[in-house]
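User: Can you help me understand a structure? I only have the sequence.
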Amino acid sequence: MALGFFGNGKGRDGSADAAQADLEMTRKLQEVRGYWESLRRGRNLPERADIDPRGISGALDGAFLLERIAPGTGRLRIAGMTFTDLLGMDARGMPLSAMFDPISRARLSILMEQCFQRPNIQTLTLGSDSGLGRPPMKGKMILLPLSGDGSRGEMVMGCLVVSGEVGRAPRRLVLESAATEPCTPTKPDLSSPTARVEAALTVQAAKVQQPFAVKPTAHSRPYLRLVDLDS
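Assistant: Let's start by predicting it. Here is the structure, written out as tokens:
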């Protein structure tokens, strides 16, 4: 089953088709990002109840909703057909980490927690496992935080897009790189322990960088004087 757009490339290495596939993946992520932005009220985050699937009709196959059930752990409440194709089964109710290889899961956990708690926007560049019956794939994923309503854990909407042949399922994704974008850079959220520690370290570092002053004595002479022994 093909999820992407690789085929008869115009170049020897299929670079034309690879570029087209990358553009199509980017278009879908931009559609979901644009819809999410349209739901924001000023700098506020959209709510789960605001989301209408018709607003992302061109990217529904990779769209998903993720609920935070523990620190660094998100469960898929809604998952498009892309997830089913990769796993070979319905992905709803499964942790998002089930889509990734073991080495990528620790870093994914940190990125999800930042998205849930900071909150931040995360854009992931993905590869895949490979082997017999599993040709290489490329992919991208975006994580967009939603406003909590107090009735359940924090939630994230997102989109996963991949290109290439799925081959033999299940397939595992490899996290190659990630770009983090604060939702409100001038007003960081200090609700998470990690954020509070980072803020405390930043303040401490600022204090250390301040120049030291020499305390004068009652005779307006310093306790310490620098003596040049070579003069």
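Now, to help you interpret it: Residues 71 and 168 are 32 Å apart (CA to CA). The first strand starts at residue 63 and ends at 70. Let me know which part you'd like to focus on.
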